[in-house]
Amino acid sequence: NDADDKEHLALVMGEVQEAEGVLVRVHSECFTGDVLGSMRCDCGEQLQRSMAMIAEAGCGVVLYLRQEGRGIGLLNKLRAYNLQDEGYDTVEANLLLGHQADEREYTVAAEMLHDLGVKSIQLLTNNPEKIAALAALGISVLGRISLTPDVNPENARYLHTKVVRMNHLLSLNGFGEHGNGKG
Length: 183
Description:
- By secondary structure, the protein is α/β, with parallel strands linked by helices.
- The protein is built from seven helices and five strands.
- The protein has a domain at 9-67 and 104-166: Rossmann fold, CATH 3.40.50.10990.
- Helix 3 packs across helix 4 (90-96).
- The longest helix is centred in the first third of the chain and has 15 residues, at 43-57.
C-alpha cells in the first residue's frame, strides 16, 4: 500500500467482482484479541464470527487492516491497557496518552473494495463511524449486520464504553441499541 506503507490483507471467498450485497468485515488488527485470544476485547470474536458468516454464505471479504489499537499501535494499546487497569475506560486511556479515541482511517479499505470490484456491501460491524466513513468514500453500504459479542467480566466495561462513549450499535444487559441506555 502506497498510502501508509502497511501490508493490509483482503481475504476473499467466492466471486465478489461485480457482486451486490457482499458480506464484508473491515477488521482492524488486534494482536491481543486475534492472536492471543484476549478476553478484554471482542476483536477476535468478531473476526471469527465474521469468517464463519462469510463461510456459511459462501462469499464475502474480510479486510484485515494494520490499525492496531484503533490506530494507536500495539505499544500504545498496551499502555492504554495499563491505564484501564488503573480505572480509566478505553476512551479516557487513549486521550490520556495524547491520542484520539479512535484514530482509524478507512480510505485503504474503500480502495481495496474498489480494486476487488465489489459493487455494494452488507457490513459486518457494530461501529456507526465505520459505516459512515465507508459510505463517504463511495462504498455502497446496503445494510449492517450486527456482531453481538459474548459479555464476560473481562470485557464488560470495555463493551459498555463502546456503547455509551463511542455509540456502537449493540445491546448489552439493558444498554440501548444506540448507546444511550434507553433502548
